Amino acid sequence: MSTQSIPSDSIAINASRLNDHLAALGQIGITEAGMQRVAFSAPDVAGRDYVVGLMAAAGMAVRVDAAGNIIGRVEGGEASAPAIVLGSHTDTVPAGGQYDGALGVIAAIEVVQAVADAGQTLRHPVEVMVFTNEEGTSFHRWLLGSRAVAGLWESEDFAAVADDGATLTARLPDVGGNISRIAEARRRPDELACYLELHIEQGPLLHRGGFPIGVVTGITGRSMYHVDIVGEANHAGTTPMAMRRDAMSSAARLALAVRRIAGEMEVVRVGTVGSMEVHPNAGNVIPGRVQMGVEFRDERMESLAAAEVELRRTAEEIAHAENVAIAVTAQRNTPSVPIAGNMQQLIADAAQLAGLEHINLPSGAGHDAQAIAAITPAAMVFVPSVGGISHAPAEYTTPADCANGAQVLLNALLLADGR
Ligand code: GLV
Ligand code: MN
Ligand code: MN
């Protein structure tokens, strides 16, 4: 992998400090089953506290907004200049990894610390934003904090209820937020100069190709569906096969159809059934009801629309064949977001300054950047994920690649500050 060569008048990040802080955050919420910093959980709150400490130590004024986003700010030399924002998230999926989101947050703080250590003041203020519930594991509402900053909350966000019955209204104070004041989290475009986010790729392209840096060209669109299949619970030993209304067999057929829609049929880039609840979930009872979560992702919104048509058509077919009722409810449709050419160029220039080769690639994962892009120009830097693994305990990015990414983030900040 390439090594860094920074021009002598530039500022260098402290690679060992960066990786030490990343490792320390990576100990908060770690279990044998992987990282468990699901938003609003005790480990999430502990991770947030750790980050607040790092921000304060780096000289930032720290506040928490009404959406629970942590915002650290250092003032710039020009009083009226809009802020350059660096950000990401510290919440994780259940049994997730130590780098998704965490790298972007720790690197952003390191960048601010490195500028302070160099005794420099930038023209622009710099804000580091740590966004609440990026993953949406809690409340099934993702990009929750970044959408509040961008003014993109929907009625479903206000009414959100967790699987355990808790309301978002009740839980938001656990991370310092307040739903009745959510409008105050929104930022005006004229307050912000741009948004820069470093993230692990979470896919195989950089690692497989041996490229240290990825310049993101756009962020995938995503549509999610809740599928409720109702058949009839009955005795597993006495009910003849022909008399069954088995919700589980129907769910299995639909799950394979989702794979076929994205796979053989190539209607959409990827399709996943990631969750399933079987009722009553007992070995000797034919399942009377199954609820499952389906998602499709594609950069082309027309492909997502076509996948929905095919999903609904197949569900009807299966309902008829299996004598069950299938309700498909659209949950959320997140549009794809292109990254502007000049913002891609900013990252490419920053990589070149660091002496690092890059490729351009789209993001198959979702990111806070796609919400923030609604109010300010956004750009993303990717670094390699070993084996392309993410949202899993084996998620790994080498310390050298983490440092490379942080250096590119710092260079991008310095370039943006001068433009
Ligand atoms: C969010 O992290 C996603 O892409 O699932
Ligand atoms: Mn992430
Ligand atoms: Mn993630």
Gist of the model:
The chain is built from twelve helices and 17 strands. By secondary structure, the chain is α+β, with helices and mostly antiparallel strands.
CATH homology superfamily name of the largest domain: Zn peptidases
Total beta strands? 17
Look at the structure and give the CATH class of the largest domain. Answer: Alpha Beta
The total count of helices amounts to 12
Query: For this entry, what is the oligomeric state of its chains?
Result: single chain
The sequence of SSEs as H and E is HEEHEEEHEHHHEHEEEHEEEHEEHEHEH
- The portion of residues forming beta strands comes to 15-25%
What shape does the CA trace take?
A: elongated
The CATH topology of the largest domain corresponds to Aminopeptidase
Q: In angstroms, what is the radius of gyration?
A: 23 Å
Note poorly predicted spans.
1-8
Which architecture of the largest domain does the CATH hierarchy give at level 2? 3-Layer(aba) Sandwich
Describe this structure in words.
- By secondary structure, the protein is α+β, with helices and mostly antiparallel strands.
- The chain folds into two domains: 289 residues, Aminopeptidase; 114 residues, Alpha-Beta Plaits (2-Layer Sandwich), CATH 3.30.70.
- The chain has twelve helices and 17 strands.
- The strands form four sheets. Strands 3, 4, 5, 6, 7, 8, 15, 16 and 17 form a nine-stranded mixed β-sheet that branches. The chain has a four-stranded antiparallel β-sheet with strand order 11-13-9-14, with helices on one face. A two-stranded antiparallel ribbon has the order 1-2.
- Strand 5, helix 3 and strand 6 form a beta-alpha-beta unit.
- Helix 1 packs antiparallel against helix 3, helix 3 crosses helix 12 and helix 10 crosses helix 12.
- The radius of gyration is 23 Å and the shape is elongated.
- The protein starts with 14 loop residues before the first helix and ends with a helix.
- 50% of the residues are buried.
- The N terminus is likely disordered.
- It binds glyoxylic acid and manganese (II) ion (2 copies).
- The site of one manganese (II) ion has 4 residues, from loops.
